[in-house]
Structures are given as C-alpha cells and as structure tokens.
Amino acid sequence: MIIEFFGIPGGGKTHLMWQLIIRMPDACEARALSRHEITRGASRFALRHPLCFLVWMAELGVHANGLFRYKLGLLLRGMAARAVAESSQSRIAFIDEGVLQRILTVFDVPLSERHIKFLLMVTPLSPVVVCVRGGEFGRFAAAHNRFNSPRVQGGEKKLRTWMQTVKTNARTVESLLSRHAHVVYCTRGARDAEPAAVLHNLEQV
Asked: DSSP string spanning the chain?
C-alpha cells in the first residue's frame, strides 16, 4: 500500500514519516536520490500516467514564473517517488513529497476549487493520505541554508505572497481530498500528530 504525506512546508511531515518507519518494519520511504534515478523514475511515471504527466508539464509551462528549473526538479522528484512506490516490494511505501504536494509548490496564485478538482482527478493519488496541518515554512524563514532556496532569492515580498497562496491552496485541497482517498488528518504539535496516534489511525484503514 502507498501512503502519501501532504501539508504546508514546516509541518513535520518528514519527521513524522521517519518515526512511523521506525515503528513499522515492513514500511519504507519511496524516493529517488540521484539524477539518474529521478530521470528513470519520472520516465516510468510518464509511461504509466501519460495524461497526468502531460497535464503537469502544461501547468508548469504556464506557471513557471521565472522558476522553471526549480519547479521542474521538484515535479520530477515527486513523479519519480511515485514510480518507486508503485514498484516497491515493501508492504507499505511512504511518499514524503509526491505529485500531490506539488499543488503547493508549482503554483504561485490561488487556484479555484474547479482547478484543484481537475488536478486531483488526473493525478494518481495514494489510497491513504496523511494530511499534516500547521506548517510554518521553517526552511524558508529560519533554516540556516534558507538563502539557497530560489524562493528566498526572489525577495521577501514574493516569498510572503507565495506562503499565503500555499495556505489558501492547501485549505482547498484538504476540503476535497477525502473524495479521492482515505485521509488521516493531524496537526503539528497536537496529540493527534504523535507517531503512536497516527499509527493507530493508519491501522484502522
């Protein structure tokens, strides 16, 4: 089974995923590390999900906004992670930053509900999605390497505008997601985000 994480950056998705993997010996993270693995995985994704691949490439072309290479890299990594998960031999494969998460990183403008419905329809979604609320964009606001991010290099005003856009689009995705997958909701810093609580909810699926 594939389980995907979704949420505003800085919500603790990656930390939570690794805590779950520690508690679930039959689980692994699906990811592509090298450029070769990313290219090969994204190519496999394109062959398995051609409509999704074409739609997202078209969206990227329209919404590149001066960050084409940066956004393309994120998108290809998400596609490669999905391809790795689909071929994983583990009983459970976790996707930390998949194609679903790209709704928050490719677009710099608030999307209509209709637009997000379309993206959810054409994107292969995992049967279970862990939706982590309460992200605070830590890597962009406080991380020691924040200035390595093209988002930060674009200036504080653009960064703040994008952060607000991410929050808006995340709320819309959250309101629609349960129509397409079983969603486990948790909030950063709350008891329902503790690994044991999330694991309990996953075991009920």
From this structure: -EEEEE-STTSSHHHHHHHHHHH-TTEEE----SHHHHHHHHHHHHHH-HHHHHHHHHHHHHH-TT-HHHHHHHHHHHHHHHHHHHT--SSEEEESS-TTTHHHHS-SSPPPHHHHHHHHHHS---SEEEEEE----HHHHT-TTGGGSHHHHT-HHHHHHHHHHHHHHHHHHHHHHTTTSEEEEEETTSGGGSHHHHHHHHHT-
